[in-house]
């Protein structure tokens, strides 16, 4: 059972080691939620931002330290330009409206992904969110925006290769650890759990390197319907999993 927070706000877990430090979320199902409710798709994304706000609040309350959300993928450019524009507008609105509160809640914002193709003002707002929360430490919110796992790995490998080419690094040091250190997500720990809502069972290029050992939790709920009860449900599932990292499990004796 995921315990209720104690009166001091710190959750009491029977086994704190069963709580993931870093959770990644693929927030899928906004469009379907809107269509089912007779609304334009953009309204689904708008409700998706509300669900994101509640989830960030719940993640802090339940004692997580890192949350990374997949807000816009490098593949999302294939959508109609009107929808892409609406997603950019929502990001602008989110940063303008929520940055002050997140700052006061001691939340540190990190942004993962490439800036290629993004409007200049969106880049400036993302930079502002990162800069203004850089000194915070209570909770880490990663926003994967214009993000693709393979693109991130290629960029990291290129940076390491450049260091080798200039003699800053030895070829022997071109290791897994070196790539990890050059990923956008550094110094976030690898995600312990990746949740995907919306009934699809795939990772869609999200945290491709980092998610190698993540527990995958797929939920039927559409993203706008996600909130604290659904996060608790996912944490319950995670707590019941046995993580072996390639070793032997309890049943092996
Ligand atoms: C997937 O739903 C969701 C997205 C492509 C975008 C997720 C974005 C948000 C929750 C809001 C924006 C976030 C910030 C930080 C401003 P879908 O459109 O693929 O849904 P469908 O599969 O039902 O069509």
TrEMBL record:
Signal peptide: none annotated. Catalyzes the condensation of isopentenyl diphosphate (IPP) with allylic pyrophosphates generating different type of terpenoids. Binds 2 magnesium ions per subunit. Substrate binds at residues 29-33, 41, 45, 73-75, 77, 79, 196, 202-204. Coiled coil: none annotated. It comes from Henriciella barbarensis. Its cofactor is Mg(2+). Belongs to the UPP synthase family. GO terms for cellular component: cytosol. One of its GO terms (biological process) is polyprenol biosynthetic process. This is Isoprenyl transferase. Pfam families: Prenyltransf. Homodimer. GO terms for molecular function: ditrans,polycis-undecaprenyl-diphosphate synthase [(2E,6E)-farnesyl-diphosphate specific] activity; magnesium ion binding. The active site is at 28, 76 (proton acceptor). Keywords: Magnesium, Metal-binding, Transferase. It comes from the Bacteria. Its EC number is 2.5.1.-. Mg(2+) binds at residues 28, 215.
């Amino acid at each position: 059972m995921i315990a209720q927070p104690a009166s001091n706000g710190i959750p009491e877990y029977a086994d704190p080691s069963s709580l993931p430090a870093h959770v990644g979320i693929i927030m899928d199902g906004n469009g379907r939620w809107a269509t089912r409710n007779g609304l334009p798709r953009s309204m689904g994304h708008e409700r998706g931002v509300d669900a994101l706000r509640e989830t960030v609040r719940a993640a802090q309350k339940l004692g997580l330290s890192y949350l990374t959300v997949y807000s816009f993928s490098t593949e999302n450019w294939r959508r109609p330009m009107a929808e892409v524009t609406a997603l950019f507008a929502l990001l602008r609105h989110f940063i303008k409206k929520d940055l002050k509160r997140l700052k006061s809640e001691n939340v540190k914002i990190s942004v993962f992904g490439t800036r290629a193709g993004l409007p200049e003002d969106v880049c400036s707002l993302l930079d502002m969110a990162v800069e203004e929360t850089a000194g915070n430490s209570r909770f880490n919110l990663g926003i994967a925006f214009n993000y693709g796992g393979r693109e991130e790995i290629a960029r990291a490998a290129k940076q390491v290769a450049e260091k080798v080419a200039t003699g800053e690094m030895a070829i022997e040091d071109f290791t897994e650890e070196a790539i990890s250190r050059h990923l956008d997500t550094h110094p976030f720990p690898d995600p312990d759990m990746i949740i995907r809502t919306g009934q699809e069972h795939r990772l869609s290029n999200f945290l491709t390197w980092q998610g190698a050992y993540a527990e995958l939790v797929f939920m039927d709920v559409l993203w706008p319907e996600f909130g604290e009860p659904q996060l608790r449900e996912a944490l319950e599932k995670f707590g019941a999993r046995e993580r072996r990292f390639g070793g032997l499990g309890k049943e092996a004796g």
